[in-house]
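@channel sequence for tomorrow's demo:
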Amino acid sequence: MNEGDRPLAGLALRPPRAPHGESGPSPASPSMSEGDHPPFKLAILGPTASGKSALAAALAQRLGATVVNGDPFQAYRGLAIGTGQPSPEERGEVPHLGYGELPLTQRLNPQAFGGLVRGWLSDCPRAVLVTGSGLYLRGIWQQLSELPEVTEAIQDRTRSWCDRLGAPRLHRFLQAVDPQRAAQLHPNDRSRIQRALALHLATGRRPSELLDGVKPGLPEGWKGLLVLPDREALRARIQRRVRAMVEAGWPEEVQALVRSGQEDLLRELRPLGYLHWLEGGDPRDIEARIVQETQTYAKRQTTFFRNQWPELPVWDPEGEGFGEALARLSI
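structure tokens (generated this afternoon):
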């Protein structure tokens, strides 16, 4: 079995490393210079902790490309550990764009973030886009309908409801008017629940109708790969990843944001896991809740990717090597 065909667990090669200690792929041959490969765009997709960031960095190193972030929360400054932004060690010498660049004051919807990412992509003739957010990927690929304008008064109304009633109760309201959109959102996903209800109030239509827009599919000129370990392997990866994030200083990252006066912004954004640290309690209990919440989220991510882009080839980082990833991408 050659180096590119060995399962990932057996690799002991040079960086880029997988995030937070996960074993990851390594290029099967030396990296290409910029002149060795024509322009291309690859999309490496998958649920959280699947190993997509490590594969994206390895592909970029092998092909002389730039890794471009397609995850909105990873675009924010100050959230490096808890959102899993690649560390300098994990990036190695591979150029990365779009990580930790935006202030927490900047609000992003799929269309606005999609415009930012398309700007980053325009600077990269050879790009490897990596994301776990299917909805925001549709914004990047312009596969959403143009959303109607929602007035500030309506936004304030839904924000006030959420403050008074809580996100889970608003989620039940959303389920009554749009079961499809409610099924895609966690009951504690405050910002997206508010946005969906605001769209309903502004238009009288189901938010899922407005978000469905253009039929998904790989845009012209793109190749894609879904990184997907089997269910139990992914659950174990999530558990290890959260443990590594805690050891890397996730609680301290949250406290630094509080000391800098950004707690309210963090509560409004509600990135996965952060509110548990703000609420406090036994660190072991907090970690267990985050693991459970992340495993639930990863299941929804997987379902979304499979439903929206069924044509995507699938690569299992637990049992397949870098060579198989290249073959699935026809590279």
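heads up for whoever presents: The beta strands are 40-45, 66-69, 96-97, 126-131, 222-227, 314-315.
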